[in-house]
Amino acid sequence: MEANLNNYFDALRSSLTAEMPIAEVQSLVAQAAASGSAPNTNTGGNGLSLGSGAMMTVAVVAIAASGAFYWLLGSSQVEQAIVVQKEEVHVQYIEQPVTASKPLVATSEKSIASESSEFGYNEPAYQHKNAAFEEGGIAPIDTIPDSVQNQKNPLVQELRQLVRHPKPLTVIKGEVSEPSGGGIKLITVHSTDAQSRLDSIENELKKLGIKAHFKPTYQGNSIVALRASLKRKRNIRVLKISGFSEMFIRLRFKENGRLEDFQLSSNCDNNGVFEELSDTDCSKNFVSGFGVFLEDWALIEENGLFGFVNWQCEEVVVPKYDKIKSFSIYREGWAMVELRGLQGFINDSGEEVIAPKYDNISTFDNYRVGWAKVELGGLQGFINDSGEEVIAPKYDNISTFDNYRVGWAVVELNGLQGFIDDHGGEVVKPQYDHISTFDNYRVGWAKVMIDGKVGFISDRGIEVVAPKYDNVSHFDDYREGWARVLVDGKLGFIDDRGREIVNPKYDHISQFDVHAEGLARVTINGKQGFIDRQGKEVVKPGLSNF
Amino acid sequence: MSNPKEKQARFLALYNPVHVPLLRYCEALCRHSETAKELVSEVVLEAFENLDKLRSEAAFAGFLFGIAKNKMRRKYRIYGREISLDSCTEDPSDIAAGPEIKAEVSLLYDALENLPEKQREALILFEVSGLSLKEINDIQGGSLSGVKLRLKRGRTKLKQLLGVAEPAQKLS
Question: Would you call B34 and A18 a contact, using CB atoms and an 8 Å cutoff?
Fold first, then answer.
């Protein structure tokens, strides 16, 4: 009896499972907007969307354990990359001893040897090449500040000596030279295009025992993305390499729990000598490098719990979470955190915007723009993107907004359906066994059912026809503005304002105008009569045969 | 061309409200969630590229669904027939649902196949995507009463095909 068409469509609707967060579309559009052409649509979920405001490298994804780094210069960096490409690039590195009396080479080799055995590396320690110093044009050694020269860590020393000169040098390509006076090693690379510059950086890093491999992706003549894998032979993890430009290269690495930062810069302010970012003793247990989650944050672990530190080694997020997911997956600038299986959010200022108290949180904007569905104890509710709980988790199920009516979502509680609006108000209390789509029977109304009885609610949430009919036809099927109703086997009419115009008392009602102009034939107990378009019985059912 | 940032914001503002209907429409046509997502991505990109050609913002839904329709056609009309509902599914049983629902759904699809394309489209847009009559009118063109008529005729035909009697007839 009730197997009507709507059941089929209900089945069809419930068979649709595709979910596509709006964020996916947003990043797609952002890519398209930035590149000016359609990007590959098959990037799936692996594509990194890059913040637009960042100056240099924006996103770095690292698999810290394997030492492989992915470094993307996003499409927003095209201009930057073009600069690199167009300009003749000149790279120059200097190595310098710790002190004048104690050459670097000896120190570092000793250190390497001891560490190698300690950590089981059998590879021979790398060797510095020695070559004759040929040419000047480099910042004189005495411009390097004393504080720098006095560093004790040999590796720190080595990296510190990587210097890029402010002015292009006319030195022979790939030349490694050393002044006859001893102590200073000068390596100069002169390249004319981006690829050879990368090659030279690789070479230079190799000399420091860092095995680097760059894989650039070109768009036209410019590098739009750069993937770098870095490996260090010793117990060292390069946590970050960033700022790939004609100006400088930045490295951050960790050795024996100590965090070191370097910016190898051609910045003229300090005579072409490196620029030191920080020299904080940071004895945290680093899990990720900087730039993996946020440009200036690195993931740390303490007693199995995770948090973040910044470049100054301050705990911006105290390690207290079991799990931290990447930023901006669920909402721009937020990262999901988990504690004892419960989910919450932190923002990129390190504040806990939503305490971990939900069993599950959906992506924002999936159900309604600015909202995310939350689940707690099997009940569903919503939070907004300011971190407020706009609808407490109290419903068994909440559908997507706008499915039935713009601004509304169906809610289910104890098997009963109702509606909430997109301000969080319960516009229709969950009291119906079933609610069908609006506008199906009549524009602005939706059919509701309680215990098999049919009624209607309006799109303002008012029950315009109480559920008391066994069946209702579509409006306008018999007469403009009327729908035929059935209750206890008797037929009548309601109008489109919910009033019962013709009491349900007839066994049968025909279409209007079939038997007589402007009239419909009605039957009670086999006796026929006629009603007019106002519902008035113009011929009372009394004659057995008309 | 306007500033890409503005274009992006404008596009997303227009697109946001129709995202879910579009996804459902594509999935209902494809009967395959992954293909539907791909299709949506392609539609979004094409729509975004051609946003400048959009005459009025009110016509956006029509513009977007029009692209989706054309994409389907171009993609699956290789075999010289009009869009068939299961044309992009290798295996129609792919639909993730219980067996009894599956049976109902495939019956419905079989019936939908027999409807004129416009009626079928109107029904899917209305019942599955949940668009309003006005929006369907924007997409399909013509008049509002035309849409109503299409829906009504489509429904009647479906009921016949599915053997679901019109409630009114049943009562008589």
Answer: yes
